[in-house]
Specification:
The complex is a heterodimer of chains A (310) and B (311). Chain A has 310 residues and is of the alpha/beta class. Chain A has one domain: Phosphoenolpyruvate-binding domains (TIM Barrel). Chain A is built from 9 helices and 14 strands. A 10-stranded mixed β-sheet of chain A has the order 6-5-4-3-2-1-13-7-12-14. In chain A, strands 8-11-10-9 form a 4-stranded antiparallel β-sheet, with no helix packed on it. In chain A, strand 2, helix 2 and strand 3 form a beta-alpha-beta unit. The longest helix of chain A is centred in the last third of the chain and has 19 residues. The mean pLDDT of chain A is 95. With 311 residues, chain B is α/β, with parallel strands linked by helices. Chain B has a single domain, classed as TIM Barrel, CATH 3.20.20.70. Helices cover 38% and strands 21% of the residues of chain B. Chain B contains 10 helices and 13 strands. The chains are: A alpha/beta (310), B alpha/beta (311). At the A-B interface, helix 4, helix 5, helix 6, strand 8 and strand 9 of A face helix 4, helix 5, strand 7, helix 7 and strand 10 of B. Strand 9 of chain A pairs antiparallel with strand 10 of chain B.
Chain lengths: 310, 311
């Protein structure tokens, strides 16, 4: 790995084919929320095989993710996806469920496991346990601060993967309320949840993807990259599973340039045109998530946001 | 409340240690009160388990172990916890203490149960979304007890995998003992603003698709499922309710105590008629619903208050 890794998530082969990944180092394949998401890699295993080959063919690392909340009836399918990932040469699997981590550890001992954000890593002691189960990287629970993340990485010696841009997961459900309404709308499942749907109440807004709830605002850590690099972080994710190929490319290009500059000791100054591009791709506004120990929808930094909605 | 629960027939009571459980401080007990609760429960033949089921910070684990040392010395019968690291450390330090994995651990499948077993858990709380069929499909060779919530809340999202509330409002403060309090984050021990219970509009970009969306969220009482659960061999049925008034909690405990005892006392071949129980439960439910909706309005209002400067 170079001085840093920039990665993203892609749910299916169509999205993968449509996406220019030149600004990325690695890609997670699969949709963690819903089994019937349009041609989800985790259900369409031939597509997954092709996806891994396609990503690796571009010189990138191919990771395979897994469901955020798998129940017993899903485990056989998870098992098959893990087998496919191993056979097709995936570079790692991402697990959000500790039972699935156990499966990977027991059945695929050589496969690096990345612990996902829904696995609830809040403490160094927790990360230590997961390390014993083969975890080599973790995404901290989204609601902990950078100070807390630092306490974990320094205590355990395991790198953290940080979401630096995109809509942060806020919850996962077993129930898709969109299905109650879809007969009234022209768009249907399994593509309905890919529309730009927002739940709004007064100033509050959250993005709905059916079985998942994401932040309405886009997490944006662009002006804080030098501090992240200085703190020793080197794995960064653009959370774009439900975004357009243009979002995936444009945002990644901005972050790649900014990370290269920060890694070379730059002060983090970003060209105004980059901010304009970010603004074009942001429906509600920007936030910093919980990285600064404050309300998740707040933005901290020089780049002030109009405080309109959460 | 501990006294009322014991007198109405509870076999075990969970008490939240102040600053360390999944409720706001008004529904938690100081260490001294926990000491008293142990005496009350034990004199009534019941067990006391301490809820340390917040997701704490790394730096707080030494303080947790110190607290546990005290509770174990006082004779607690178990603890319910969420953070896997804290569980592993408590198990290492107190290997004979019975540890339960909390609802916040979001245990969904047999492999999860095996994982928690391996770090020292001997009883797990089943997620409220699991069906009877799923509970029945549990692998028989897993040496772990199961605990089923029979009065609780079934949120839109999985418990322990939701941070909608702190996304809207998070106020970080410290309590009188210097313990950090994350008001707005249920997973971190603060209160939950229940923002999911708002009436939402659904928009496609800027266009209104639906004027009112209600995310599914049911506060439930099990009734029809009680006999099958007992038939399945579930030995621990749990009533969630420490935020409700003491008389209401007493009524709920009494209702289930009598229902369970009556069912278990009847000959196996004799049918069991739930009709009289249903009407009795309706009255309890009406009271619970009224209290709950009042609390929800207060919380939603609090969620809209600005976070004080410096918090």
């Amino acid at each position: 790995m170079g001085p840093f890794e920039l990665n993203t998530t892609i749910s299916n082969l169509r999205n993968l084919r449509e996406s220019d990944l030149s600004a990325y180092d690695a890609v997670y394949l699969g949709n963690i929320y819903c089994r019937i998401f349009e041609d989800n890699f985790l259900e369409c295993l031939d597509d997954l095989k092709e996806g891994i080959a396609r990503v690796k063919g571009q010189g990138l690392r191919a990771y395979v993710t897994s469901y955020a909340a798998p129940r017993n009836d899903v485990l056989p399918k998870v098992q098959k996806a893990l087998e496919t990932a191993a056979a097709a040469g995936a570079d790692a699997v991402e697990v959000h469920n500790l039972g699935v981590l156990r499966m990977v550890h027991e059945q695929f001992p050589g496969m690096p496991a990345h612990v996902g954000g829904f696995a609830n890593v809040y403490t160094d002691a927790g990360a230590e346990v997961l390390k014993e189960y083969g975890a080599v990287r973790f995404t901290p629970n989204y609601e902990i601060s950078l100070d807390e993340v630092g306490a974990i990485t320094s205590g355990v010696g395991m790198p953290a993967e940080l979401v630096v841009h995109g809509k942060m997961p806020l919850g996962v459900s077993d129930y898709c309320f969109l299905l109650e309404y879809e007969q009234k709308w022209p768009e249907k499942c399994p593509t309905l949840c890919q529309k730009n749907l927002f739940l709004k109440q007064g100033d509050w807004a959250m993005r709905s993807v059916g079985k998942g709830v994401l932040s309405g605002k886009d997490v944006c850590m662009l002006e804080h990259l030098p501090a992240l690099i200085a703190a020793g972080h080197n794995v960064f994710r653009i959370e774009a599973a439900y975004e357009t190929p243009a979002y995936r490319l444009n945002i990644a290009q901005i972050y790649r340039a900014a990370l290269e500059q920060a890694a070379a000791g730059g002060d983090g100054t970003v060209d105004e045109s980059a901010w304009n591009t970010i603004r074009e791709h942001t429906a509600i506004g920007l936030c910093n998530g919980f990285y600064f120990g404050r309300t998740g929808a707040e933005y901290v930094g020089k780049r002030m946001q109009s405080v309109v909605a959460c | 409340m501990v006294k009322a629960a014991v007198e109405n027939g509870a076999n075990a009571i969970y008490v939240g240690a102040r600053g360390w459980s999944r409720r706001r401080d008004a529904y938690e007990l100081s260490d001294e009160k926990i000491h008293e609760a142990i005496a009350i429960a034990h004199s009534g033949g019941a067990k006391i388990r301490v809820a340390i089921n917040t997701n704490m910070q790394s730096c707080e684990i030494p303080a947790l172990l110190e607290k546990m040392e005290k509770f174990v010395g006082w004779g607690i019968d178990g603890a319910i916890m969420t953070d896997v690291g804290a569980i592993a450390q408590v198990h290492r330090r107190f290997p004979y203490l019975v540890l339960h994995a909390s609802i916040g651990a979001n245990i969904l499948n047999n492999e999860d149960v095996k994982f928690y077993r391996s770090i020292g858990v001997s009883q797990v709380v089943a997620d409220t979304k699991l069906t009877l069929r799923e509970l029945a499909s549990r692998e028989a060779d897993i040496d772990v007890g199961i605990e089923v919530l029979i009065h609780a809340n079934n949120c839109y999202t999985y418990l322990g995998k939701c941070w909608m509330s702190p996304y809207i409002r998070l106020e970080r403060t410290a309590d009188d003992f210097g313990k950090d309090v994350f008001r707005g984050s249920p997973n971190r021990g603060g209160l939950d603003y229940r923002v999911c219970l708002e009436q939402w509009e659904l928009l496609d970009d800027k266009a209104l698709l639906e004027p009112v969306i209600t995310l599914k969220n049911d506060a439930f009482f099990y009734l029809d499922d009680i006999p099958p659960l007992l038939d399945l061999g579930v030995h621990c049925l749990k009533i969630q309710g420490r935020e409700y008034p003491v008389p209401l909690v007493g009524s709920i405990v009494r209702f289930y105590r009598e229902l369970i005892d009556t069912y278990l006392a009847k000959p196996a071949e004799q049918p069991f008629d739930l009709t009289p129980w249903r009407s009795r439960l309706e009255a309890i439910q009406a009271e619970r619903d009224s209290k709950r909706s009042g609390m929800t309005l207060v919380l939603l209002n609090e969620a809209r208050q600005p976070v004080p400067q410096g918090a």
